[in-house]
Amino acid sequence: MKKCALVCNPNSGHNKKKPIIEKMIDVLKEYDYETEVYYTKYSGHAKKIIMSLKDDIDLVVSLGGDGTFNEVVTGNFKRPKKLLLSHIPLGTTNDLGAIFGLGKNPITNLKMILEGTVKGIDICMINDQPFVYVAGLGKFTDVAYNTPRKLKKNFGYMAYMFNALKSFNQKTHLFEMSYEIDGEVYTGLYSFALVCNARRMAGINVFQDVKMDDGKFEVLFSNITAKKDIIKSLYYFKANGIKNVPGFYFFRTDNLKIRLKDYPKNNWCIDGEKLRDRSLTFDIKIVKGLEMLLPNKELKNIFIS
Fold first, then answer.
1. CATH number for the 130-286 domain, one of 3.30.930.10, 3.40.140.10, 2.60.200.40, 3.30.70.380?
2. Residues sharing a CB contact under 8 Å with residue 115, sequence separation 6 or more, in sequence order
3. pLDDT tens per residue, range 117-151
């Protein structure tokens, strides 16, 4: 039989994990997998679990939120031999699950994955810290990691909305930033910066025609500060798309160097979690070498080949 390591974050989402795990083990057995289950016990534990796995593991199944999968990916990049990964969402927003075409039923999701296709996926690095789909700094970007876990447990996605509304009512601070692309340097004042490798974030489809294997990532900067302009930007976004919003600056690249004049009020957010790096300079690039077993449903929409 093939070997599967199932890495579960017991604190993700609302589901009772034990019945789900038991059903998953049965399904994996039907697909000729012998499964060992690993429960995370603290932040960063998933990374250590992946780093400690033997090389004969045929498949790793991540079971949790986007942050759990980020830890799994981070641990995988620390290994000499990379393991084949998959991800089943059990968190609150589950952007990655939606991007990959997964629904809310974890057992159905598992079957879709096991009948899917192995794809090579681009991973972004910010100062050598991997992120799978989004890194953000500035206005609203701290909502994901500053929303209390108890609120997320009780109110789900609405907890983020409550916190986002609180952020909306607070004064927007600009930060001075210079950035370098292909040797050209630009400087300006910005309210937020986003670097993405997927079309969706915070439960919203933000970008169009984004491929996760094209060797590039999407970048969005904004200098909007006034509440009325924030509201207007939402209207323009809905009517005309992200590229046609006044005060938004969008481009695609495979390399980006950011230098901040001062330390920002909040940390970067990567895949919904706080980046602990408090540097002033951030080097962002694409790396290859990660393979995932993915359901076939969305492959044509998110991959070139």
1. 2.60.200.40
2. 295, 296
3. 999 999 999 998 999 999 999 877 766 665 656 66
pLDDT digits (tens, 9 = 90+) for 29-70: 999 999 999 999 999 999 999 999 999 999 999 999 888 999
Cβ atoms of residues 40 and 7 within 8 Å: yes
CATH number belonging to domain 2-115: 3.40.50.10330
User: What separation in angstroms does the CA of 249 have from each of 13, 49, 205, 270, 272?
Assistant: 34, 39, 17, 20, 22
What are the domain boundaries of the chain? 2-115, 130-286
* pTM, rounded to two decimals: 0.88
What radius of gyration do the chain's Cα atoms show?
19
